[in-house]
Design a protein that fits this description.
Number of strands: 21
Largest sheet: 6 strands, mixed
Radius of gyration: 23 Å
CATH architecture of the largest domain: Alpha-Beta Complex
Strand content: 15-25%
Number of helices: 10
CATH topology of the largest domain: Creatine Amidinohydrolase
Structural class: alpha+beta
Length: about 350
């Protein structure tokens, strides 16, 4: 949970009296309480958790250091009453998470409260994981590794992509996960050349099989990709696989505190380009991960995150890929933690090509 000192820092940074949180990921991040209908108000003196009768008793039992408020009527009356009682005049809300109709309701006439929209106000706070958060993600990765190792022992011809995904889901639940962190991608043959392929009824035969999967464990996500081959891989596939693997390793070697985010992407991208496949690397090298599958930073040489500097405790994916339309694609993905002098790779699964 975020500490009082950090809350005060955010309030000062945004020049407000309170923060109003409505998105499920941030509500969970701040409270570690799972609810489909909950809101948070943070002031310098108090942490307020608002929820309905389905969750009220559970929240009161778990959130001992919070003021837990029962949501009885329309949200706007409850929120404005709480703000008025505490003398709040300026409130920051999550600009990208609050709908126009919701905001219109919250801005009650005569309330005297100014509502200020900030895009992703907890972006930087959430990017620096605590030891406890890193341990949870590490557990999720370990369990995902275990599922993958069992999975490849069961894959063969005469299966469909959906059959493999069904096993992934079943294995995740068997590991105690809350579910998938995203719908697993199982892409055989030419389908693997489509980075976000939707797992289908395509039968699996001899050829490349890309598996991209992740679980939710204690509220945190894992994300893992390997590309394997069923049968005897040809020289072109082996060449592309080796290039992606080496680009992956070069990106990991670049990771350490003080390096610019964009430079991690650049080293992988330039290597793939040098090998003649630059036009076929069509996405970023990685993305932050935590209570959501995609978080800050986006590991890409372009965009608003590119010049930001890596800090110890950041957690993100490294996942370069090459996609040859109509033929095949190769992607290899691991989660890394930024350390002062390098990166911890969480997965223990080797990057060597697996041939079944």
């Amino acid at each position: 949970m975020i500490g009082k000192e950090r809350i005060e820092g955010l309030l000062s940074e945004y020049g407000c009296d309170a923060l109003f949180i409505s998105s499920r990921p941030n509500v969970f991040y701040l409270s570690r309480f799972v609810s489909t209908n909950a809101y948070i108000i943070l002031t310098r003196e108090e942490r307020i958790f608002i929820t309905d009768g389905r969750y009220y008793e559970g929240a009161k039992s778990k959130l001992k250091d919070w003021s837990v408020v029962l949501l009885k009527g329309p949200l706007k009356y409850t929120i404005n009453s709480l703000l008025r009682e505490r003398g709040v005049k300026r409130v920051v809300y999550e600009k990208e998470r609050v709908t126009c109709s919701m905001l219109e309701g919250l801005k009650m006439k005569g309330s005297g409260v100014e509502w200020i929209g900030i895009e992703n106000p907890f972006k930087y706070v959430r990017s620096l994981k605590s030891k406890e958060e890193i341990d949870v993600i590490r557990e999720a990765v370990k369990k995902t590794d275990a599922v993958y190792k069992r999975l490849i022992d069961t894959i063969g011809e005469n299966m469909r992509e959906k059959d493999v995904r069904r096993r992934i889901v079943d294995e995740f639940l068997g590991e105690g996960a809350e579910g998938e962190s995203f719908p697993a991608i199982v892409a055989f043959g030419p389908n693997s050349a489509i980075p976000h392929w939707t797992t289908s009824d395509t039968p699996i035969g001899k050829g490349p099989l890309l598996i991209d999967m992740g679980m939710v464990w204690k509220g945190y996500c894992s994300d893992f990709t390997r590309t394997i081959y069923i049968g005897n891989p040809d020289d072109e596939f082996k060449k592309v696989y080796t290039i992606v693997r080496d680009a992956h390793l070069k990106a990991i070697e670049k990771v350490k505190e003080g390096v610019k985010v964009g430079d991690v992407d650049r080293v992988a991208r330039e290597y793939i380009d040098k090998k003649g496949y630059g036009e076929f690397f069509i996405h970023s090298t990685g993305h932050g991960i935590g209570v959501e599958i995609h978080e800050y930073p986006r590991v890409y040489y372009k965009g608003k995150d590119a010049k930001d500097v890596l800090k110890e405790g950041m957690v993100f994916t490294i996942e370069p890929g090459i996609y040859l339309p109509g033929k095949f694609g190769v992607r290899l993905e691991n989660i890394v933690v930024v350390e002062k002098d390098g990166a911890e790779v969480m997965s223990s699964v080797p990057l060597d090509l697996v041939v079944l």
